[in-house]
Amino acid sequence: ANKGTDPGDFSTINPIQRFEINAASGEVGSKWNVAYEGIARSNNVLRLMASKGPDVTDADVARISAQARFLRAHYYFELKRDYGNTPYVDETVDYGSGLEEISNNQDLYPFIEADLQFAAANLPAVPSQVGRINSWGAKALLAKVYLYQKKYPEAKTLFDDVIANGVTSRGDKYDLVENYGEMFRGENDNHKESVWVYQAAANTGSVNNANPEFDLNFPYNGGPAGCCGFFQPSFTFVNSFRTNANGLPLLDGSYNAAPNRVKNDQNIGSDAPFVPDAGNLDPRLDHTVGRRDLPYLDWGKHPGAAWIRNQPNGGPYAPKKYIYEKAEIGSFQDGSSWTAGYTGMNFMMIRFADVLLMAAEVEVEIGSLEKAREYVNRVRTRAKNSNVKNDAGVDAANYKIELYNAPWTDKALARDAVRFERKLELGMEGHRFYDLVRWDTVQAEMDAYFALDGSILIAALGSAKFTEKYKLVPIPQDQIDLVGPDILIQNPGF
């Protein structure tokens, strides 16, 4: 996604999309602070377990400790992916005596693994309350952590178990929701694709129980919420949904070539004529992206520029996932704050399609290409049955998507297919950049993105480029200043 909106709105994040941040940038410490707050709360719970009351059983201690350690592992994994290694603090550390001496010279992964192994062993398969993390969610995150380290045999064992035997917090066997768009509706919260989901609720008396982090991402000046136009899908991303005559994606990267680009209404006013793209497209595009003159959930047709705050800055597209429907106003939408964009839809941190595609990635790397093809085709079958319809009940665009019917015999091509499927299936859900970094394809992908999007959104992206050091975010300078650069070691290049 592009930052979107207007260049003057939340201008401190402009350097993030341009890869120009430094250790003193205003937003560099935001994620750091939030993650360590979560770690501190997890550690406090674990300390309390040591002085439990007589009414707290050993089983209670194991379950509650497993929940806390799962969350602690999550926060450290987030830190690891963003900042690299950071100071490790657990419940045994006395915050008042020497915290400033803790360095970031230890690898976080062994600690993350230990917490998740404990969580997987001590959490119930079906918790007492729907929505609490269960043992299967812990196994899925542990398998993901193994995958990030290229520990493929360990990851495969867990993914196989989760796929064959895993259940949701309701006790439903994991499976794909029949229609792609139904995953993102509040009434379907905790559906059968929900592996690890954080819970949200609207109209509870505090909008912070909803999804306050999404309230900026709605179309501007009309439709749902009316504010604020952030998080706009990029041209490069939208073009990725072009399919060939056989209904397969353009794995060679030619989707960004001029003949294959998806037609759009950039620089065309809403009162001017426009005919949408008529070429072959994967239907997941229109579940993920709002496009001119196509249905925008139940809000009618997206009018184009009238709902875009600043096309020259962000492009012509609007996000579509986790946007509430008109029918959800007052139920899975909370209008009690400054914007109506607070929603009660749960956010899927890991969903079953993600598990299938991570498992497919593992199968490719260990040489089981046909098993990988099976998993990818399972995901594509659901997409094939998820065409977006217009008011007349017919396909809203020229959707053409097929399965990979020929056996996979080339490992490199199989790898490309699995990786591309993750972009199509999980787009705008927060996975893409981390995937590119761990695959070490980020430089080429970002070069292609800046070559196209930068040539169109000149004011926002013009001279921007990606360099190797931005695989990680810099350690916040104010944290280094507290303890000194010999203890808290800055990432290379900053």
Outline the secondary-structure elements.
Layout: E1 2-4, H1 14-17, H2 28-49, H3 58-83, H4 109-122, H5 135-148, H6 152-165, E2 194-198, E3 230-232, H7 235-239, H8 285-288, E4 289-290, H9 311-314, E5 318-319, E6 333-334, E7 342-343, E8 347-351, H10 352-366, H11 369-384, H12 411-426, H13 432-439, H14 442-456, H15 458-461, H16 477-483
Antiparallel strand pairs: 1-3, 2-8, 4-5, 6-7
Helix pairs in contact: 2-3, 3-4, 4-5, 5-6, 6-10, 10-11, 10-12, 11-12
Describe the structure.
This protein has 494 residues and is mostly helical. It has a domain at 15-96 and 104-205 and 348-398 and 407-483: Serine Threonine Protein Phosphatase 5, Tetratricopeptide repeat, CATH 1.25.40.390. Helix content is 38%, strand content 5%. The chain has 16 helices and 8 strands. It has a two-stranded antiparallel ribbon. The chain starts with a strand and ends in an 11-residue tail after the last helix. The mean pLDDT is 96.
Gyration radius, in Å: 23 Å
Please estimate the helix content.
25-40%
Q: Which CATH class of the domain at 15-96 and 104-205 and 348-398 and 407-483?
A: Mainly Alpha
According to CATH, the fold-level topology of the domain at 15-96 and 104-205 and 348-398 and 407-483 is Serine Threonine Protein Phosphatase 5, Tetratricopeptide repeat
Q: Number of helical runs? A: 16
> How many angstroms does the end-to-end distance come to?
25 Å
Low-confidence residue ranges: none
Find the count of extended strands (DSSP E, 2+ residues): 8
Largest sheet: 2 strands, antiparallel
Write down the oligomeric state: single chain
Overall morphology: globular
Architecture per CATH nomenclature, i.e. the level-2 architecture of the domain at 15-96 and 104-205 and 348-398 and 407-483:
Alpha Horseshoe
Order of the strands making up the biggest sheet: 1-3
Query: Percent of residues in beta strands?
Result: under 5%
